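Researcher: Here's the sequence for the chain we discussed earlier.
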Amino acid sequence: MIPLKDAHPGARTATSAALAVVAALLAGPRPLVALGAAVVVWVAADGVALRRGAAATVAGFAAGAVAVAVAVLLADVDAGWRAVGVPAAVGGAAAIGGLHVGLAPRARVMSFCPLPLLGGMIAVPVVLWSAVGIGLLALARAGHEIAPDATSLAGTSPLLVVAAAVVVGVLARPRRRRPASSAA
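Model: Thanks. This is the structure I predict for it:
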């Protein structure tokens, strides 16, 4: 499956393109991580931006990137700022993916499926799509890039960022007002 766009009606936002480029540049030394982070941000940032605005999207990406970068620096003081690009890209992508799931858990991501029997455009649930995206980042050894000891706080920080972003997204969802019941 090749994810293309959140199925939310509306045009693609410039925020998603800009943040995808930032994620790819941050993870530049690791092409698989750069591609994975850029794709997650490219698709999920649209859903967040169309539901909560560009400022919330940029703030979510920055918060995730900073959280994981700080975790790396706390785990390895000698790492220096040059070593935090890949972790920052993973943290930003994790935050955007988590926000997207939290804001719209029933949303769909339009994806191209090249399989012979299922070929064409399909709408994949955002929860499944985000789980696959996070799994692909993990398979790309993003966790190993963050910290060789995967049990450390720095190694698990992207998962903590995803969990926190889902909670923030759920709390930021607009609440539906129930009509006042008329007591007769």
